[in-house]
Amino acid sequence: MKKDSLVIHGGETIDKFTGAVNIPVYLSSTFKQPEFGVSLGYEYARTNNPTREALEKLIADLEGGSRGFGFSSGMSAISTILNLFKSGDKILINNNVYGGTFRVISKVFSNYKLNYDIIEDFNELDFSTVSEDVKGIFIETPTNPLLSITDIEKISEEAHKKNILVIVDNTFMSPYFQNPLNLGADIVIHSATKYLVGHSDIVAGLAVVKDKELGEKIGFLQNAIGAILSPFDSYMLIRGIKTLSVRLEKHEENAKKISRYLNNHELIEKVYYPGLKEHLNHEIQKKQASGYGGIISFKLKEGCDFKKFINSLKLITFGESLGGVESLLCHPATMTHASLPKDLRDRIGIDERLLRLSVGIENSEDLIAEIGRALIISKGED
């Protein structure tokens, strides 16, 4: 089944109890057992719930996995997965990983002696230098916010030779454009708050695995830790996913136009978008994904006032998050990546002139006109 059909018909699309076309919201914390020793598959809602189960089957289908898991946020998903590791283990992470991911690894799990190393470019990693205590690799591709691309298949192949678990955050691409499990990754994670729900109205996280034994381990942790997704938010996420294909196509269509506009603008120093042929890893992205997504980061030239640019926006919303139908602009250095040490931010280019644009599904001409006007104002030429 093609992706644009699977988003609508994947998983359990019809309620198995009533035949309802939309999976109902099962608001019950507990379930009656028919008799002693007999279960209908649902006992306590932390362990399982029919609405969440339908969502988990849907995301497993979309990612080509055997089992999916719904969490109360993307960070809940990441935190639960990190519990697969033990004290003394080390994980490797991108140098411009999402600030929340860096924070939980460096400030929370480090207290339990889970160590980490920052990798400048996974594509250049020499696995002969990787120490024996490395048990996991956590990849964002594209990264947030610099849109760096990692060759998932290459890294997975090398990592598995050393029994290293490969975890891929697929938030920016969504399963519509990229399927890391099919490229060799062990676990795929989503902040479903973003493109999957697509309307900026819930907070949610998802994880998917292909290996059933690994799925059992994560299922145990999901139940034991209990950071589960509510039935209502599960319903909202199923509903949002049904329009994923049409939304992503429009997000990308707009992003391509805007990235080309920015790339040719005299007040822009650099554009970060994997859909541009000038992007360092454009060919890797082209090989492993079916699209380039709707996120663009760009750096204003010196002399442009980023605050004036931001404050002049009317159509584009200035705020946290991404992946909604509305265009959202954020300032990574003071928002999403404030948790990264300043010396690291400065070294990799997350400075005050860097802006990240989550391109919405508005009219592209309106968005370009807004950006052009804001750029003129940022230069003090209003």
Protein topology:
Layout: H1 3-9, H2 50-63, E1 67-71, H3 74-82, E2 90-94, H4 99-108, E3 115-119, E4 134-140, H5 152-161, E5 165-169, H6 174-177, E6 187-191, E7 205-209, H7 212-225, H8 231-241, H9 244-263, E8 268-272, H10 282-288, E9 295-300, H11 306-311, E10 317-318, E11 328-330, H12 342-348, E12 354-358, H13 364-378
Parallel strand pairs: 2-3, 2-4, 4-5, 5-6, 10-11
Antiparallel strand pairs: 1-7, 6-7, 8-9, 9-12, 11-12
Protein name: Cystathionine gamma-lyase
GO biological process, one term: methionine biosynthetic process
Cofactor: pyridoxal 5'-phosphate
Report the average pLDDT across residues: 97
Query: What class, by secondary structure content?
Result: alpha/beta
Taking the sheet with the most strands, its summary is:
7 strands, mixed
How would you sum up the global shape? globular
Number of domains: 2
User: CATH-wise, what's the superfamily of the largest domain?
Assistant: Type I PLP-dependent aspartate aminotransferase-like (Major domain)
Ranges with pLDDT <50 over ≥5 residues? none
At CATH's second level, what is the architecture of the largest domain? 3-Layer(aba) Sandwich
Topology as H/E string? HHEHEHEEHEHEEHHHEHEHEEHEH
CATH topology of the largest domain: Aspartate Aminotransferase, domain 2
Strand tally = 12
Biggest sheet strand line-up? 1-7-6-5-4-2-3
